Amino acid sequence: MLHIGPPGIGTRYEQTNSNRPANNTSNTNPAGMPLNACRAFWTEGECENSFSCRFRHVKAGASFREQDPLPPPRAPLNNDDVAYASNPYTGALPGASLTPTQAHNRIKLYLKPDYDFRSSEDYYSFVSILQSANAENHTWFLKDGQEFLQLMGDVSNGIRRIQEVLSHPNVSSEAGFSQGLLSFQRGYLPLLAYFSSEFVVRSTIQTNVNALYGLIRADLDHVTLTIKSCMESCMTRRSFGEPGNPQSGLHVFKAVITPLHEYLRRFKTADRSDNLVTLVHNLARWLDRWGERISAWPPRHTDSIVYLPVEQRQHAVDQLKRAIKPLVDLVERSEGTTRQEQQDAPVRTSVGAILDDLAQPPNGKTQLNELIKKNGGMYKCERERDSIRFRLYTDVQFGPMTCDKKGVSVELILDAPPGDARHQSPAKRTAYWEGEGKKRLMHGGLVVLIWKTDSNSPGVYLGVITSWLDDLVESAKKHENRVKVRVSFFDAEVELRILRILRRLQKSRKEERETKFLVESPGMFEAVRPFLDGLKAQEPTSFPFSDYLPLYDSVDLSHIRVTPPVYAHPQFNFNLRTLFDQPRDLYLCPHDPDSVARARIILKQESRLDGTQAEAMVDTLTSEVSLIQGPPGTGKSFTGIEILRVLIANKIRPILLIALTNHALDHILIKVIDKEITKKIVRLGSRPADKIADLSLDKILADINRTHKDRAQGKAFAMMKRAEEAMKNFMEEVVREKAGLAQLEPYLSSHYPLHDDELHNPPFWIQQLYDESQDHDFEHPNRPTEPKSLVDFWRQGSDLAFITYTAPSAASGVSPMQAVGGNRRRPGNRGAAHPDTSANNANAARVLDHATWTNDRRAFFEESCGSRTIPPSPTTNRGIYQLLQNPDVWSMSKAERDRLNAYLDQAMLEGSQPEQLEEFERLKERHRQATMEWKEIQNKAKLVVLDKADIIGCTTNGAAKLTELLRSVAPRVLLVEEAGQVLEAHILAKLSADNPGIGQVYQFDRSLMERLSDSGLRMSRLDVQRRMRPEISELIRCTLYPSLVDHGDVIGRPSIRGMAKDVFFLDHRHPEGGAGEESVSKTNAFEVAMIKDLVLHLLRQGTYTETGDIVVLCAYLGQLVELRKALAGEVMTVVDERDVAKLLDHRDEEDVAGMFEDSVQQVKISSRVTNVALSRAKEGMYILGNADDLAQSKMWRGVIAELERQGAIGPAIPIACHRHPQKVTLIDAPGQIALHAPTGEDDLTPQTRVGRIPVI
């Protein structure tokens, strides 16, 4: 168990203005309500607008003194102040104690645009409001603090006022009552304390938090020099106070250290100025000197802390030194020391294999070409020490690109994988994706697009799947051999490239010769992505428990003293009364050895804990890091429940409870409820058990949102939608064919000015024809739509179409008197359409015979040019070089215009790429920021709910995905259920990021508990087991747990019906095989068949019919697959939750779908063969394997020796009827049980045969 409290987080700041609707919408006010008072607050005592309400908050019936009471007198230092020094999330100063209502009413004055500080007292009044907003002021709740922060960060005047205080030119620690000086103690320190208050540091509104810390960054030198000068003066005077305002170094150092550390943690790339580095080193030196002075006798520093007991003084100093150490490390840490986990090797291996195959001749015999022939499949890669399998999807094509709250994503259409995913039946395809294909192309999975063209080397682009299973299933229903997924790529360049491809496809409806593959392997990203994000987010110097968790050259932790939890100051006591069935007080002080020893003795003698459980309880409560070990049945979960009971009874909350699986998490949460430990539980994540469904965070928030609407959330959502719309408009402009038209004229003007001049000065008749085309009554010749500009007119060849006669087509069904464009317009009737246009055929084009057409054109040219000669239509076909040399664009034929236009279009496209990429990245960043701010507002509501919880439960995956939110919650205790199965990275992601020790990396295939145990860290062990019969417990007692003791409850357990031995090892020499062409897992057909016979034999006994009565542990996932196949139709198999993901990921395409069909009995099977395999069974255990192979392990040699001693190992399993136990039959081959005991009993008792297996 880890006693923790992680720090907060932050991002950028963007000023916004908010015009909140007024609460006072009526013209008539209630009787007695003061002017400018809020109607809602006056009548109801609360206002939903909170700090954003522009009216004063005054409650009806309250006196003036109740509305605005005087602050209480300053109390002397006490235990709470010492505990405050241990709290890493606050730098609050005592003194100001305004309520949220008072702060609301007073802050309005300072937020007016024209407000100016006129005296030092104005500054002090302003900062006293900020000073009141902290968790130490018990009139404030988290919701109040978040809304106040939102107000100060959103309103530009609030930021401006804070900046004016920070940048005050004359700050002094000896200001006294001088109006020209700002007191460091009354004006500067309170502001720094607000920066480091819980409401700021733990806030989820990172934008506003970074706005505050951005003020320090903007004036860093002034801030650091001001603090340095004032602190030097205080140290010289040997007092941090001033007349009438005493201050303790306990609060002063905390108020300075915390904001500086937060600043450096939030702005990791910020320069470490010389002034900042000097200040930090001075702070460390001053802290040492102050600690010496207050510890001396007589004290050599005027400070109220000297009146506290010596041990409390020393504890406070130690905690402050603990707080300043990471700050010193931060300023000393050189650039480039941060290390990242090398988890990209599988990606590089996968991509490298594909690129190597692409480099081979096109018709060469490569694994890639073989998979292309099959339209995709599993690629097996063997490279030196690397061995990896990954899925390859072929014939990737692009679909629409969209922008939503998940970001920019593109639709990929690709070949479905082999097998039922390509079945003719939509139902079969659906069943595939909802069954064995469930783990393929899953939401959040990492994929790699490999894109090769004939002219360029292959491009490699990483992205994350954003579509969900339902989207995949819908696409599979509609298409037999193809599926669609949406992917968000990490690189904006590839997304812009895809947009241009979509534009080209829209124009030509065909794509140039390209090769595109999609590579997917859930193992290379999805399993560790949330934990990598969690590890990456933290600052290395903020690593909790750095004495125990970093990797060292010497890994011996056996001599390290584990200190008490941070929250346990020297005078802190646990009351252990809840551990006794007959309640009695028993106090445990973690810092008092006598108290600890006494608690151990009494708990062992009188509590409901056994001896080892009592030891584990005391070890846990007195250590900031605690490990509890024990085989199944020794009461680990029971002890964990009792630990929770004690912590919550002593108000140690919130507690973060994590487990590997949903089932394990729900099991312990239900136990907490059943034991009536607390009802204040919030369950994070999906799929909670029905009994605790109402404890789901999503359910709680849904209930709240039905009655309370968050206006800030609505505003943030609107900003996000506007950013989405801007991105969509940009993408549409890039994709649309006319995206380049608006750029053609400026491009021509700058690159080809002569062509541009000719284009805008056409021959007179063309200009007249174009002008007439802009008249809505004009029937444009030979074109269904009229051009929008002269450039369009030229590109479309509208002038050429006018002078080119097109004979009517017989196939069209149009009579010779109908025409495209008709008689254009008759001379003298230029404002009217042709009178022969039929109202019943308004959309039909009119066609003239050649003679009529000629007369009409001659009339036009006679009127416009004075000549009846119709110009010939150009038919030249010059190359692009000649066209660029000749600027006479109107003399070009349609083919030449198309050629020149295509050249210009491509030139513009290439020339605009940098600008488009820059704009695309800018819009992506804008959308990312807007989405982040919207999520911050959502997280604010979540944080308010979680802050009221005693226990927050989630799985390891869920905790990693919610790392930022949980860091804001700042749980005081982290309790990990089944910690031996939780990988190290899964726990460290909740704590910190990098390894501050040497260059080794944390391991993704090992539990933190295992590493700490191997390193010698003290571990509590539970030794009294209440599960296994003695014959089973002896197997682990002689190998793993020599001190294991059998509780009396396990003596005399009933023998297994139908078996002659309760424990037996079937020793065989049947070889293993592979589980399929695409699998690297192993199987053993003999064992599968024997297990099937044995399971059915046990079920026929009629005793073992409940789910979990029979558990089969498999050594390999491949064996698990084969066993499910063998039992299909006979037994319903329930796969352990920890193996579901592995099983689905492992399954070959040709695996039978019947494995998921309902059947008649339930047997639980699992692939986890570890130490728990020997300690899982209660009444009987049967092992199948090769004893010689297993004996190569030291542990198994001991197990086999004990089995031989018990006479429980051999080449055949002995079975016996429970009615005739003396008749023993040896079974050494599949099918023999059915011959000797077809009904579960021998032939001596035919009347007891069962006709069928009972249906459960």
Describe the model.
This protein has 1256 residues and is of the alpha/beta class. The protein is built from 45 helices and 30 strands. The strands form ten sheets. The protein has an eight-stranded antiparallel β-sheet, with helices on both faces. It has a four-stranded parallel β-sheet with strand order 15-16-14-17. The longest helix is centred in the C-terminal third of the chain and has 53 residues, at 894-946. The two termini are 40 Å apart. The N terminus and C terminus are likely disordered.
Please supply descriptive tags for the structure shown above.
4-stranded parallel β-sheet, 45 helices, 1256 residues, 8-stranded antiparallel β-sheet, disordered C terminus, disordered N terminus, flat, alpha/beta
